[in-house]
Amino acid sequence: MGIRVALVDDYEVVVQGLASMLRSYHEEIEIVELNANTLVGKRVDIALYDSFANPQGDKDEVRWLAANPLIDKVVVYSWNVEPDMINAAIANGAHGYVAKGLPASALVSALLSVHRGDSTTHLDDTHAKVVSGDWPGREEGLTQRESEVLALITQGLSNVEVADRAGVSINSVKTYIRSCYRRIGVTTRAQAVAWGASHGFLPDRIRISRDGIDDPTVG
Length: 219
Hints:
Layout: E1 3-8, H1 12-22, E2 29-34, E3 44-50, H2 60-67, E4 71-78, H3 83-91, E5 96-99, H4 104-116, E6 121-122, H5 144-154, H6 159-166, H7 170-184, H8 189-198
Parallel strand pairs: 1-2, 1-3, 3-4, 4-5, 5-6
């Protein structure tokens, strides 16, 4: 019998891409919620928190998920595999941390391992660049990191805020922005934001608002 997994991200294309990636493993993984538009509201074994355009694992969003009594375990799914970030996410309540570079079979094995309590961290030891899932702008040739940065500036975040949210340096943010401009054929930030807003780079749901309305510990 498979484990029950809720997919958590604010972009429908990301959630659906992840669901498609796991579809062949339906005997091991039962996707019970596609959480681009809803909070986790059903009993699940694992909430898989995709870090695309979301705060990193050491922020409130993961802590709130971990505090949800309907969720047995929270697993962070991220490109950021720095030891300090992994340790901070685990200290913040995450029960597992999985690298986005893993192929589908290894992702499934990682989720099952976290569920059993065998191992917390699952990274890509082969250093192979596995392209998995889906993201806004893929058809335009944007990489996942470029897409994430464009999504964040489309939401109105400054470069400093983008760096914090994506877990990269300011210089990396600037590099990603420049490459985004070239790929989508714009020259200014305003043009990039307008392009992003009209091409699916605004989230389908703002899950955690800045005033705490969606904080499950409020009210």
